[in-house]
Write a structure and sequence with these properties.
The chain is mainly α. The protein has a single domain, classed as Na+/H+ antiporter like fold, CATH 1.20.1530.20. Helices cover 81% and strands 0% of the residues. α5 packs parallel to α12.
Length: 288
């Protein structure tokens, strides 16, 4: 792990810690009492979006590396950023955290399985078929460092030192918002040499793909009849895939293929933009 990756991990851990300062054990007890909300959050990630993406690649006439990247991103679970966006949008953060934790475990099996059979059953991408292997220890370490530890620390501070938690909540929340915008700006700067008009079709594809994930999350939550706060969490979980995991797989398995990196990289930037847009709309609606 290089210095940039370490810095990013620390920022994400701080963001999760800031969220935990406002969580209580009772929040997770309520989630455990309504498991259908967790199931509703997992269905878009591991069934609807992957299958929908596979069907779309069968219908579209795209380069095989682009189609393979779309399938790979759709097969990845959500990341910890979804918890931050859900919290900012005043959704059910405890539900978002629960779904992310369960999804990370399911991904050990579901991500390789979904990607392998979808790529091999698409004539265009069949030649791209690889033996996809995800190191379970890598996902466990990520889950522990960037989610479990800061979450437990934040909840402990909130329980043991409520006055300190109250003082930290607002500045850390502001830091989280600034960090999200920084991710977008740094991502754009990093890819500035590649940001040409030729990328517009790929960006449009990524926007449509991400919008379908958000829509599938919303439709699933409506079908399950969950509360408005739960719907926000499930919608964000459906539309925020772990593009960082996808980029790592592309580097290890596909030699950083430019077309695949472009799709996953644009996803990493755009899903923050779309997630923040949803959060701002929800906050504005709550203020009315």
């Amino acid at each position: 792990m290089n210095a940039q990756q370490i810095a990013l991990s620390l920022v994400l851990a701080t963001m999760v810690f800031s969220i935990a300062l406002e969580l209580k054990i009772e929040d997770f007890k309520r989630v455990a009492q309504t498991p259908k909300a967790v199931i509703a959050g997992l269905i878009p990630q591991f069934i609807l979006l992957p299958v929908g993406t596979w069907l779309a690649t069968l219908a579209l006439d795209l380069p095989p590396n682009v189609e393979a990247a779309m399938i790979l991103v759709a097969a990845c679970p959500g990341g910890s950023l979804s918890n931050v966006i859900t919290h900012f949008g005043r959704g059910n953060t405890a539900l978002s955290v629960s779904v992310s934790a369960v999804a990370a475990l399911i991904a050990l099996v579901a991500t390789p399985f979904n990607f392998a059979w979808m790529v091999s059953n698409n004539p265009v991408t069949a030649s791209w078929m690889r033996s996809l292997e995800i190191d379970p220890s890598g996902i466990w370490v990520s889950l522990l460092i960037m989610l479990a530890i800061p979450m437990l620390l934040g909840m402990t501070v909130a329980y043991k030192l409520p006055q300190l938690a109250a003082k930290l909540t607002k500045p850390l929340a502001n830091f989280s918002l600034v960090a999200l915008f920084a991710f977008i700006i740094l991502g754009l700067l990093k890819e500035r040499s590649s940001l040409t008009l030729a990328l517009l079709p790929t960006l449009a594809l990524v926007i449509a793909h991400n919008a379908s994930g958000l829509a599938l999350g919303w439709l699933t939550s409506k079908a399950f009849g969950v509360s408005a706060r739960d719907r926000r969490a499930i919608m964000i979980e459906g539309g925020m895939q772990n593009s960082g995991l996808a980029l790592g797989i592309i580097a290890l398995q596909f030699g950083n293929d430019f077309g695949m990196v472009t799709v996953a990289g644009l996803w990493g930037i755009w899903h923050i933009v779309s997630g923040l847009a949803c959060a701002f709309v929800w906050r504005r609606a709550d203020a009315l």
